[in-house]
Amino acid sequence: MKLRLALVLAVLVLAPLASLAWLGARFAADARAEVVARFDEVVRARLAEQAAAVGRLMGEKVKALVAATDGFPEEPGDIRDRVRRDGRFRFVLVLDSEGRRVFPPADGPVSEAEEAFVERTRGLWQGRALGRPAAHRGEDTHPQRQQQGIAPPLAKGNQMTLGNGPGDVDVIQAAAPPTPVPLTTVATATADAHGWHVWYWGGGLNLMFWRRIPDGRLVAVEVDRVQLLADVVARLPDTGSEGGEETTALIDSAGEVIYQWGAWTPAPSQAPRILHALPAPLAAWRLAWTGTVPVPAGMAPGLLIGLVAIGLALAGLAVWFYRESTRALREAARRVTFVNQVSHEL
Q: Which of 11, 42, 55, 83 sits a CA distance of 20 to 30 A from 290?
């Protein structure tokens, strides 16, 4: 009888304790998930702010290039003089209102650099791709992925900031495969429309700013890729600016790290946790955050103390109930013992 009662009481105590322990573990897991979600939200907001800084840079470049193409000369010699004087120009392509190339001139003397520029942009001006939406050109907008580096290393803060990073190029490529992006960002179809044209040549992304000036000509300016990357890096945090176990990298369309900041070096097999694309026209480039999320281990102290208190209360209640339930048996046993003693004496 006593053993059966003890087993019943043990079940009555252990079943609620097991349920409470399961609920506590579930609550702790939900709390950890909430902490992770809030942490990721903070990181995404920070990456969005950094990407917005790059977006403001590109907006400034648009304003500067629009101003630089005001009153654009017509004679090849005058155009060359402007290109030489203005550091914002690398090469210039000029098409007439019918889409025919007028600079570099097809029937005039051109330098070797201009001839090379004409060759690498032939698909743009021969196919009349500039100034037209990608959907109207019938072109494949998926960029050609090149595996070569896009520029020589850049130094910032006396540190080399361009390279393959901590050996995680393949991981980044697997985690963030480049997605198709429109080749052209086109403004409204007015006499002063302008936009960006993106194409891939020489192992990386190239940008060309085009503008339809009031006289009907289309002026396209090739942006210096090295200078562009230097300007983008200047808008991002310095290397080593992030403390703790985290690092952020800027990766290009081929998945290669071209700049990173943060003193922590992740394991080669650790994939980026959060990815954020830069604004157009640099949408093929991404910010990749890699780090350790500070998740609390185990149950919260308050929850654990509560479970222990409930367990002790249930155990005490079971002991009290057991003693009260067996009191009558103990009293009967004492009476039987007394009767036996009296009978034995008689």
A: 55
